[in-house]
Amino acid sequence: MRDDRAVVRPAIHMIDREADALADLAISVGERLPQVSALLMEEISRAEIYSAGDLPAGVVSMNAFVEFVDGSSGATRTVQLVFPADADISNGRVSILTPVGAGLIGLRQGQSILWPDREGKERVLTIVRVDRIPG
């Protein structure tokens, strides 16, 4: 029997300094992007926090390259998760302040999450591969 709660909100992991920076960012855009701000704050609040060197392998962190399957379309995409100033969708750099970006942060390779898109429709995102950049 499948545990739907694990798909809806699986355990996630974050680097301490990234969690702090993302919380500040989410608060700063709360009025302009209330949905993404709230989703990101919720994810940060439930994440297990690590120092950068202790984050488990295969976890999506900032600047990581992430291959995932979008369950609504079946499409596989590879993106780099970045801060808003570095976002460039035409080059595969997705901002953490997009619904997809906020949904990917902290997930491990092999995990899935049921996550809203820009229109509020729920879709399953499944992490296939994570390549983190040391730093």
Task: Explain what this protein looks like in three dimensions.
The protein is built from 4 helices and 7 strands. Helix 2 packs antiparallel against helix 3. A 5-stranded mixed beta sheet has the order 5-4-3-7-6. A two-stranded parallel sheet has the order 1-2. The radius of gyration is 14 Å and the shape is globular. It has helices at 4-8, 16-28, 34-46, 99-104, and strands at 13-15, 48-50, 65-70, 76-82, 93-95, 112-116, 122-131. With 135 residues, the protein is α/β, with parallel strands linked by helices. The model is unreliable at 1-6 (pLDDT under 50). A hairpin with a 5-residue loop joins strand 6 (112-116) and strand 7.
Helix run count: 4
Q: What class do helices, strands and sheet pairing give?
A: alpha/beta
Instruction: Please summarize the sheet with the most strands.
Output: 5 strands, mixed
Which spans have pLDDT < 50 for at least 5 consecutive residues? 1-6
> Percent range for helical residues?
25-40%
- Terminus-to-terminus distance: 40 Å
N-to-C order of helices and strands: HEHHEEEEHEE
